[in-house]
Amino acid sequence: MLQSTFAALVPRVALVALVAGCAGPSASINSGASGPVATAPAPASELAGTWRGSFGRVSADYYMDEADCIVQIKEDRTFTAACKPSKAGTNNLAKASTWSGTVVTSRNRVTLRTSQEAWVTLIRSGNTLYGVAEDPLVEGTIMMRFEREGSTG
Question: Which class does domain 6-148 fall in?
Fold first, then answer.
């Protein structure tokens, strides 16, 4: 499944460097299934709330690509997100960014869509959203993981 990632949102919307400035307009998402798969889309109330997490490069070399992010999902299936570079290291390619859009679900997949057609699809397992994408800006694979605020994991 080929789609733009959060990172793609960053430079494009100057925000998502959920990969702040570290993702280009079309990153690919690896949507390998793991964990139980729901038979129906999750009701909006099950996703609504604040999700905190981060993204980071799978195999770092001289430069890091890491950011801390907050995604807020509302019951009307809209979302806002903000990322800022992590404080670890000085060679971090991530840039601060924000963006917004709509949430679409299918089974255990949660897709965050923006008006710029830059999307990221995450897998949901309980109170965790996670995914893997290729960041075209740094030509590296990044991991994204978010935990629902107030959950224990």
Answer: mainly beta
